[in-house]
């Protein structure tokens, strides 16, 4: 007698791996903010996580009335949760404001419209150590109070100052194709990030019209660059903004970059591997808001919460303040995706014959 035992074990396991992605919060900001007829250019988060916005009233391009400052408050503090305006200031100070950073915490400091330090001469352009020509951004060195200015549209240089506004040094482009570096073509944004050397930091420069982000040591020696191909971008997108967030769990934090061209606006995360290397990660399309119709494509500035899980973007546009808020979705809830699913198929067939 022969008995055959067929034993079939089939295990199919489909595991859904969490795939982090960013999702737009369409309810933010408050309608009153969405409807403001102003041209938003710069954003930064305060220590409470609320968004400080600088805008240019209704002025989109240079061409503001000559030698006049904007008469209305151009700085808004917007609640990062409710999207409501908490505070405004900055009237009659700026002609064509572009970027913003902060050193003192606006929560504990009472702001008014008097400047404590001004570098450059109002309405006078220049390229020496006491003048700028359309500067666009500023980054503060934690601790020392020194700062880096991206001087910007016509000088295309990075200039550094000590905390009292004394000129230190300046630098221009380095390049991956040294010994013939391509000069900067609009140093649009500058950000600092920790490096592998604990006392040092890295200087990230968004070289807007060269479609690249260049990385320097604190004294302006070129280290490496991130080009548009590394961001997975076709053609020559403009690199608008760079910012840094410590991002819990990462040794050196992450750099966030906005870029785009022709109605195509994106932001991307960059992992800082060490002082000599960074890796461009996933990028996210900043899609137009159907409600308000056409738009100007510049993803002009970006601000990221310390934990890296909330991203704010200011999209520049002729006649309306466009602020976007994205939350990192860790893979749960409605945003759950099957990407990265693991399929394990184990098939065992046992044939036993008894005699
Ligand atoms: C603007 O102001 C500067 C400095 O006060 C002055 O030199 C210049 O002539 C003014 N320009 C015009 C067009 O008024
Ligand atoms: C603004 O604040 C500074 C510092 O607190 C003070 O010295 C200055 O007088 C104030 N200016 C006005 C116009 O209130
Ligand atoms: C800078 O980029 C613009 C395009 O945005 C281009 O027209 C211009 O020739 C570039 N300037 C230099 C010096 O390469
Ligand atoms: C870090 O320090 C080492 C040793 O001092 C140096 O060789 C290296 O270039 C530094 N890295 C950066 C990014 O500055």
From TrEMBL:
SUPFAM superfamilies associated with the record: NHL repeat
Signal sequence coordinates: 1-21
A GO term for molecular function: monooxygenase activity
Entry keyword set: Glycoprotein, Monooxygenase, Oxidoreductase, Repeat, Signal
One CC-aspect GO term: extracellular region
InterPro entries: 6-blade_b-propeller_TolB-like, NHL_repeat
Pfam families reported for this sequence: NHL
Per-repeat ranges for NHL: 126-164
Name of the protein: Peptidyl-glycine alpha-amidating monooxygenase A
Origin species: Folsomia candida (Springtail)
Taxon lineage: Eukaryota, Metazoa, Ecdysozoa, Arthropoda, Hexapoda
């Amino acid at each position: 007698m022969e008995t055959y035992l067929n034993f079939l074990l089939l295990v199919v396991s489909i595991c859904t791996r969490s795939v982090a992605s960013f999702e737009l919060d369409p309810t933010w900001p408050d309608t009153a903010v969405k409807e403001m007829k102003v041209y938003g250019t710069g954003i930064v988060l305060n220590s409470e996580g609320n968004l400080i916005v600088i805008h240019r009233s209704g002025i989109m391009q240079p061409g503001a009335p000559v030698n006049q400052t904007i008469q209305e408050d151009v700085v808004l503090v917007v609640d990062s949760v409710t999207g409501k305006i908490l505070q405004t200031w900055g009237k009659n100070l700026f002609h064509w404001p572009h970027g913003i950073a902060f050193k003192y915490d606006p929560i504990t400091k009472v702001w008014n419209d008097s400047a404590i330090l001004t570098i450059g001469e109002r309405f006078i352009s220049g390229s020496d150590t006491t003048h700028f020509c359309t500067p666009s951004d500023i980054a503060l060195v934690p601790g020392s109070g020194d700062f880096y200015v991206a001087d910007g549209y016509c000088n295309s240089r990075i200039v550094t100052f000590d905390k009292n506004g004394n000129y230190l040094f300046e630098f221009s482009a380095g390049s991956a194709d040294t010994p013939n570096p391509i000069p900067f073509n609009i140093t649009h944004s500058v950000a600092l990030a920790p490096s592998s050397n604990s006392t040092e930091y890295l200087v990230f420069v968004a070289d807007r019209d060269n479609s690249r982000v260049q990385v320097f040591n604190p004294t302006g020696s070129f280290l490496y660059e991130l080009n548009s191909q590394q961001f997975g971008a076709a053609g020559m997108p403009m690199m608008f903004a760079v910012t840094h967030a410590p991002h819990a769990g990462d040794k050196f934090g992450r750099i966030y970059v906005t870029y785009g061209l022709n109605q195509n606006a994106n932001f991307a995360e960059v992992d800082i591997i060490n002082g000599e290397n960074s890796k461009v990660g996933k990028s996210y399309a900043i899609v137009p808001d159907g409600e308000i119709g056409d738009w100007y494509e510049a993803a002009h500035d970006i601000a990221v919460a310390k934990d890296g899980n909330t991203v704010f973007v200011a999209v520049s546009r002729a006649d309306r303040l466009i602020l976007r808020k994205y939350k990192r979705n860790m893979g749960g809830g409605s945003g759950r995706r099957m990407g990265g699913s693991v399929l394990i198929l184990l098939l065992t067939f046992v044939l036993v014959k008894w005699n």
